[in-house]
Amino acid sequence: MKKVSFAEFGGPDVLHLIDAEEPHAGPGQIRVAVRAAGVNAVDWRLREGQKLTAHPLELPAGVGQDAAGVVDEVGAGVEGTAVGDRVFGEGVGTYAEFAVLSAWARMPEGLTFEEAAGYPSVVETALRIVREVGVRPGQTLLVSGAAGGVGSAVLQIARDRGITVIGTAGAANQDYLRSLGALATTYGEGWTDRVRQLGRVDAALDLAGSGVIRELVGLTGDPRKVISIADLDAPELGVRFSGVAGSVPDALAEAAGLIARGRLHIPVERSYTLAEAAAAHIDSQAGHTRGRRVVVV
Known about the structure:
Elements: E1 2-6, E2 16-19, E3 30-38, H1 41-48, E4 61-62, E5 66-74, E6 86-92, E7 98-106, H2 113-117, H3 120-133, E8 140-144, H4 149-160, E9 164-169, H5 174-179, E10 183-186, H6 191-198, E11 203-206, H7 213-220, E12 226-228, E13 240-241, H8 248-260, E14 268-273, H9 277-286, E15 292-296
Parallel strand pairs: 8-9, 8-11, 9-10, 11-12, 12-13, 14-15
Antiparallel strand pairs: 1-2, 1-4, 3-5, 3-7, 3-15, 5-6, 6-7
Helix pairs in contact: 3-4, 3-8
């Protein structure tokens, strides 16, 4: 089978499309014929060699953890899933023609494989950090870097729970944030004053790692009311860095319910082929994404 792999840490140029042996489902796992794989920041962070304790890595390594596809192998002990089912979920080495998933759910009706591949890690992260930051219905949540996949999910999940959301993003994404129910403003000089004009901030999330932790603490008045998923130095300022996933099956089940009710939709901004994985990483690392990027197999 074809898969994207890297044998050394470095820039996007270390990614190569290679011929590899097919993986097989172990106990409690399934294998899918991958139709699309989500592109996440953790993919290029691992490729660079960043030490992410939740994702130990041995070289050579595959790339990707999110996928949508058709089940073609079911491991021992798996119930309720059969060959031929259309699923989306999380595993390892998903930039490939076949991948093993350890957590999955049936794809909601009407969702394409490209769309479905963009949800697993993004929705798990969004649900986790909304919970961890402790924001409640009737309060206001500030989301820094709100137009990407996680931000798009956070805005919709928070609004579904009766939480007011203020989102920061580039000028081109202001209407997009408003379409998701957020009060929107741009980042850049004077952004904290613009946020204050929109209302009191009870809690804040840093999704972009753009060096705004001090400002977020100032806006909330308490580092315990700020969570970052992108700034590894956040703990130096008393802010929690959230990087360890919770229950992915539970997150997928909740995501499927939100999608089915029309309460969650994350658009696919761009699709890439397996051979274009390096370009996908370059674009992901550059940021300014509206929604999701996926690799189509």
